[in-house]
Write a structure and sequence with these properties.
This protein is of the alpha+beta class. It has helices spanning about 10-15, 20-25, 70-85, 125-130, 140-145, 165-175, 180-185, 205-210; strands spanning about 35, 40-45, 55-60, 90-100, 115-120, 135, 150-155, 160-165. Residues about 1-5 have low confidence and may be disordered.
Length: about 220
């Protein structure tokens, strides 16, 4: 098991510490933003809601990347994601910018998290990962293929196709921090900041997402 990272944004939030960014923004409004929980995974509305209903799926235990999870844990991810979005009509794109702390890559938070974002129209791999991508049959295959790289991006587009890039491609083609959020803002011409750290006030969409869900359960 990966040791608990000092100053992990998500671990602090799960422990209800006032030092978490969520507590700093929402402490007077929401005690928690967890909308679904199993014995292994947690779903949270994203700070920086580019589209209403944008979610993060995280392992409850601290691990740096989804590719570091066991095959059994990754198998449970699929059923968790299906449960989270049961009955949702919008297409969703999923992506993870996985990075080990030693890489100093990604967005600077080294607790594994997959973005699940409803999009109003198609967003394909050509838009998400235009250069150097490798196709995979599934997310689990993509994570397995990237276990030995310190940094990667794994993505599933709105058509259900999956691809990834590794650390060499990231460096060669300049896939920077929060690459996918930049893509979403540009592709859909969103009048919102791509950087989640620019969201310093409570978001109506996040509060609505919490209110719309039944209390989280352990299954």
């Amino acid at each position: 098991m990966t040791p608990l990272q000092t100053n992990c944004e998500f671990c602090d939030e799960f422990e209800n510490k006032t030092t978490s960014r969520f507590a700093a923004i929402y402490g007077g409004r929401l005690r928690s933003r967890i909308v679904l929980e199993t014995d292994g995974f947690v779903a949270l509305p994203t700070i920086g809601q580019l589209f209403s209903g944008s979610m993060l799926i995280l392992p409850r235990r601290h691990t740096e990347r989804f590719s570091d999870l066991s095959r059994f844990e990754i198998g449970r991810f699929d059923s968790f994601a299906r449960r989270l979005f049961d009955g949702v009509g919008s297409d969703h794109v999923l992506f993870e910018h996985g990075a080990r702390c030693v890489s100093r890559g990604g967005c600077g938070i080294y607790h594994a998290h997959v973005h699940c974002i409803p999009v109003p129209s198609e967003l394909l791999l050509n838009d998400m990962l235009p250069f150097g991508r490798q196709a995979h049959d599934s997310l689990s295959d993509a994570w397995k293929a990237n276990r030995n790289t310190d940094e990667y991006i794994v993505a599933r587009d709105s058509a259900g196709r999956v691809a990834s890039i590794d650390e060499d491609v990231i460096r060669l083609h300049g896939y920077g921090s929060q690459h996918m959020r930049r893509v979403l803002v540009s592709h859909f011409s969103l009048p919102k900041p791509w950087d989640w750290r620019d969201y310093e006030e409570p978001e109506r969409d996040l509060i609505a997402a919490v209110a719309a869900r039944t209390p989280s359960h352990v299954f």
